[in-house]
Amino acid sequence: MTTGLAEQPPLQLFKESGQREVFCGLTSIVWLHRRMPDAFFLVVGSRTCAHLVQSAAGVMIFAEPRFGTAILGERDLAGLADANDELDRLVKDLLERRPEIRTLFLVGSCPSEVIKLDLAKAAERLNTQLAGRVMVLNYSGSGIETTFTQGEDQALLAMVPLMPSSEVDQLLIVGTLADAVEDRLVQLFGRLGIPVVTSLPPRRSTELPPIGPGTRVLLAQPFLSATARALVSRGGQLLTAPYPFGVEGSRAWMAAGAAAFGVAPALVAEVLDPLVERGQRAIAPHRELLAGKRLFLLPDSQLELSLARFLQRECGMELVEVGTPYLDRQLLDAELALLPPGTRITEGQDVERQLERVRAERPDLVVCGLGLANPLEAEGIATKWSIELVFSPIHGCDQAGDLAELFARSLRRRAALSFS
Ligand code: SF4
């Protein structure tokens, strides 16, 4: 006689490498510049880079944009001009016109990396010249090095060395949240008796939260590996939990924060259980549509494991395959533990082979990047753009119904377009 546990097949983990079909890290400027209105993101790149950021952000007609591109011309790319001089001149012009800028991010791109333009040195040089008037930081958003969410990881990583040291007991939430969602989570942590809750990135780029041995670091996004490691090396204590998507993940995430401060489980239940019940009620109508539907997640945002867990456990979907660009076990073990036994997980990408599997499996819904969505829709397969999930306020129990609705909407739209 065997136990049920022994019969369960383990997760199936595969690695793939080949052609990738993902956006680069420049994309994250779209949500980072909204978060920190006193910062400016200057991409040092080509017209293609400028076009990507413009189209990802939409055209801003009335507001002065808080991002731009220093375009490397053919002479720069051929090494015939000194791109450093040009960059310094451009930065000075920009700061004269825009005195409200407090932090300037120089963002590297594929072209700046190909010509080996050293933006770390440029930032150092400009910091000396500007003498404290503006803080200049640099990071890479290049498609050679980053997928689109890693752009945020790199931007936050650049800020870590500037965070003041402190021994104060605090909960540090890491990862960009919509302001209203953040306010709500801070209020809930306050009700749980955690008095000091800070955020990285902060709302004002100059008001960086402190870091030190009293800091419990709670990641709001699963794609912040480099930032997490840097915060730990500054003395922070990294809490591990599922991520705050859906009621189950959100409850477990908040409970992990509470446990790190010794909050009694009874108080956690008193504060959070009503939210869980309300969230489950909000999910219910979408679950009716999603339950039993087959889901294939292609690797793109690094949110895939968390979304798979939410859609399978709370919405009743069946997982065909869960792809992720990278699998950081330290940051994702709590999510892996909640996936059903036998789930096929692939790390990395060989896009042609993955598309072959999608076509063979004919799932009801594919979560993927923008570049793959249209061709799959044309083949009659419903899709959900993964990029929409980083632009939408989806964190927390209160947002669980909206999160489920984002996926149900794709199925409803396809049903409405179906003439058969
Ligand atoms: S950084 Fe690279 S991948 Fe991104 S838009 Fe520029 S050239 Fe394209």
In short:
The protein has 18 helices and 14 strands. It is of the alpha/beta class. Helix 10 links the parallel strand 8 (215-219) and strand 9 (237-238).
Please describe what this structure looks like.
This protein has 3 domains: 25-146, Rossmann fold (3-Layer(aba) Sandwich), CATH 3.40.50.1980; 170-265, 3-Layer(aba) Sandwich (Rossmann fold), CATH 3.40.50; 277-417, Nitrogenase molybdenum iron protein domain (Rossmann fold), CATH 3.40.50. Helix 8 (150-159) packs parallel to helix 10 (225-233), helix 11 runs antiparallel to helix 12 and helix 12 packs parallel to helix 18. The chain has a 6-stranded parallel beta sheet, sandwiched between helices. Strands 3-2-4-5 form a 4-stranded parallel beta sheet, sandwiched between helices. Helices cover 46% and strands 17% of the residues. It has helices at 4-7, 29-35, 47-57, 74-77, 83-97, 110-114, 119-130, 150-159, 179-191, 225-233, 246-260, 265-290, 304-313, 329-336, 351-361, 370-378, 387-391, 400-417, and strands spanning 12-17, 39-45, 67-71, 103-108, 135-140, 170-174, 197-200, 215-219, 237-238, 294-297, 318-324, 344-349, 365-368, 382-385. The protein is of the alpha/beta class and 420 residues long. The radius of gyration is 22 Å and the shape is globular. The protein binds iron/sulfur cluster. Iron/sulfur cluster (SF4) binds at residues 24, 26, 45-46, 48-49, 52, 109-110, 141-143. Residues 24, 26, 45-46, 48-49, 52, 109-110, 141-143 line the site of iron/sulfur cluster. Residues 30-407 form the Nitrogenase/oxidoreductase component domain. This is Light-independent protochlorophyllide reductase subunit N.
